[in-house]
Specification:
The protein is mostly helical and 107 residues long. Helices cover 57% and strands 6% of the residues. It contains 5 helices and 2 strands; from the N terminus they run αβααβαα. The chain has a two-stranded antiparallel sheet with strand order 1-2. The longest helix has 26 residues, at 73-98.
Length: 107
Amino acid sequence: MSEELPQAMVAAWAARGLPARLSTTETAKLLGFAEHDIQILMATRRLVPLGDPAPNAPKWFCTVEIIGLAVDREWLNKATRDVSKYWRHKRERQAVARQPTGLVPVA
């Protein structure tokens, strides 16, 4: 990818008046993920919030960095696979938990 494209993207987003840091909701919208997927991306270290926030504190992300990730096809591919893998494993765990244990109830 040429250097001109990311600079043009930053200029276009700057013209839209985006702030220097984005909330998880704004980050999810810009990247095209669901808001609850941002937690998954942080757990897999695909996204790193600004500062060192406490687990229950609001998370903020650098706008320029997020725009760079939004135009990086390789990063988007890896992030999408990570999110898909998380949800697939969650469904598998739930299916195993719903299976009967094979125990016969005592009357």
